[in-house]
Write a structure and sequence with these properties.
Residues 58-172, 181-203 form the T-box domain. It comes from Calidris pygmaea. It is a single chain. This protein has helices at residues 17-35, 42-51, 61-70, 145-150, 184-194, 205-217, 225-232, 240-243, 312-315, 317-322, 336-339, 358-362, 400-415; strands at 55-58, 74-75, 81-82, 88-92, 98-104, 112-117, 120-126, 133-137, 143-144, 153-154, 159-160, 174-175, 284-290, 341-345, 433-439, 470-474, 477-483. It is an alpha+beta fold. The strands form 5 sheets. Strands 5, 8, 9, 13, 14 and 17 form a 6-stranded mixed sheet that branches. Strands 2-15-16-12 form a 4-stranded mixed sheet, with no helix packed on it. It is globular and about 70 Å long. The relative contact order is 0.23. Mean pLDDT is 48; it is low at 1-46, 174-183, 210-430 and 436-486. It binds a DNA duplex through residues 75, 77-78, 81-82, 84, 188, 191-192, 195-202, 207, 210-211, 214, 218, 334-336, 429-432, 467-468.
DNA sequence: TCTAACACTTG
DNA sequence: TCAAGTGTTAG
């Protein structure tokens, strides 16, 4: 597993040789992007702001690959459900003293809704109208580069929901996506095997007998053990042969570029599964979470529990050696609600908003990467070079938005050049499903306004989501905070 | 199509 | 012991 720096990268299996080549290409592109641009180009300007060395590495990449291979999905609920695998990244190259805000965005993959029938996905209609999305601000934000780099940055607590009125600021997914046939069994099995909370569904003899007993008692036909296993195993599925093997498929050979200063290295990338580029522009609702007892603050509180991986050393020798655990930072927050109060910033960017669209700012190389349906961008910028004072979840008025806009406008030309993309497929369930499209790093089009924290529970999202087959793209973007040494 | 209850897990 | 997070299941 990802227990070293290398572990964040591509597996060292022969099948991934293409991926390694891509990785090398991406690094080369990044270097070129950082060095070959004219000083007056946006790219160069971006680089000059100290963004050139920033890298984001996906944690547990192999697990992500497994889910990607079978087409990941998740059932979402009104209460919100966590993503699995959880999204954790290692960030390097930040200015240790500069403060950054780290965001995760959800981007729709297309404007269709689909159903899974007859072992295939088919379009059942048009997606519901685009709605403002939400950006999930990492609860540690703003924090210094040193803080972000100290250990894994975890979005484990991020929940996805289809509840428009969700009062906790859980991220709402977007309707989408592609008609690719993958049976749900494999994803289910992967989650059961890997998610501790789903251990109850792991197949032990006793468990299966118990389950069968329950089925019997409810007048279900008695199903042979082999059949029971078949349900959750991919081995007997019509797609088993091609989906159980974890490898870098030919899709890994797809070209992509990663050439701006913010380098989401190819290590972040998962092989694309399908050629469905994101087509839907998204406006924004910025939301973040904060602790009930501390309010969102513009300063870093030493007592606040980091939402980054709290004990990476336990699972990752790399951090064991490189990142000594912090002491005295693990204030315990018992409940989710106590841990995370939503700081949600509604925005209704009009079509004429000068803010660049998603396509404009972040996906300009998609035509060359048709296999990817999502775009991830990582953008970080030293705050001390930006024309605003601070950005936090604590603001009590709207000036943030223009400031944030300025950030986005400032950086968007470069953002478009760097993206890591990968896509996951979904499968069927009678519950709302989210298609997890993988980490995305990036500042997207900025919201037109921000609301004070007191409004964060308001829901500026009067839109009806289609409940099924949601597609989510998640990732991080870093918006710079001010620099302490400026 | 959607929801809530269920049995199970971890912490 | 409890809260919270899982996929399954029935209504």
């Amino acid at each position: 597993m990802a227990d070293s720096e290398e572990g964040f990268g591509l597996p060292t299996t022969p099948a991934d040789s293409e991926a390694k080549e891509l990785q090398a290409e991406a690094k080369q592109d990044a270097q070129l992007g950082a060095t070959s641009k004219s000083p007056t180009s946006p790219q160069a300007a971006f680089t000059q702001q100290g963004m050139e060395g920033i890298k984001v590495f996906l944690h547990e990449r192999e697990l992500w690959l497994k889910f990607h291979e079978v087409g990941t999905e998740m059932i979402i609920t009104k209460a919100g459900r966590r993503m699995f695998p959880s999204y954790k990244v290692k960030v390097t190259g930040l200015n240790p003293k500069t403060k950054y805000i780290l965001l995760m965005d959800i981007v729709p993959a297309d404007d269709h809704r689909y159903k899974f029938a007859d072992n295939k996905w088919s379009v059942t209609g048009k997606a519901e109208p685009a709605m403002p999305g939400r950006l999930y601000v990492h609860p540690d934000s703003p924090a210094t580069g040193a803080h972000w780099m100290r250990q894994l940055v975890s979005f484990q607590k991020l929940k996805l929901t289809n509840n428009h009125l969700d009062p906790f600021g859980h991220t709402m997914p977007w309707t989408c996506d592609e008609p690719v046939a993958f049976p749900p069994f494999q994803i289910t099995q992967l989650k059961i095997e890997n998610n501790p909370f789903a251990k109850g569904f792991r197949g032990s003899d006793d468990m299966e007998l118990h389950r069968m007993s329950r089925m019997q008692s409810k007048e279900y036909p008695v199903v042979p053990r082999s059949t029971v296993r078949q349900k959750v195993s991919s081995n007997h599925s019509p797609f088993s042969g091609e989906t159980r093997v974890l490898s870098a498929s030919s899709n890994l050979g797809s070209q992509y570029q990663c050439e701006n200063g913010v380098s989401s290295t190819s290590q972040d990338l998962l092989p694309p599964a399908n050629p469905y580029p994101i087509s839907q522009e998204h406006s924004q609702i910025y939301h973040c979470t904060k602790r009930k007892d501390e309010e969102c603050s513009t300063t870093e509180h030493p007592y606040k529990k980091p939402y980054m991986e709290t004990s990476p050393a336990e699972e990752d020798p790399f951090y064991r050696s490189s990142y000594p655990q912090q002491q005295g930072l693990n204030t315990s927050y018992r409940t989710e609600s106590a841990q995370r109060q939503a700081c949600m910033y509604a925005s209704s960017a009009p079509p004429t908003d000068p803010v660049p669209s998603l396509e404009d700012i972040s996906c300009n190389t998609w035509p060359s990467v048709p296999s990817y349906s999502s775009c991830t961008v990582s953008a970080m910028q030293p705050m001390d070079r930006l024309p605003y004072q601070h950005f936090s979840a604590h603001f009590t008025s709207g000036p943030l938005m223009p400031r944030l806009s300025s950030v986005a406008n400032h950086t968007s030309p470069q953002i478009g050049d760097t993206h890591s993309m990968f896509q996951h497929q979904t499968s069927v369930s009678h519950q709302p499903i989210v298609r997890q499209c993988g980490p995305q790093t990036g500042i997207q089009s900025p919201p037109s306004s921000l609301q004070p924290a007191e409004f964060l529970y308001s829901h500026g999202v009067p839109r009806t989501l289609s409940p099924h087959q949601y597609h989510s793209v998640h990732g991080v973007g870093m918006v710079p905070e001010w620099s302490e040494n400026s």
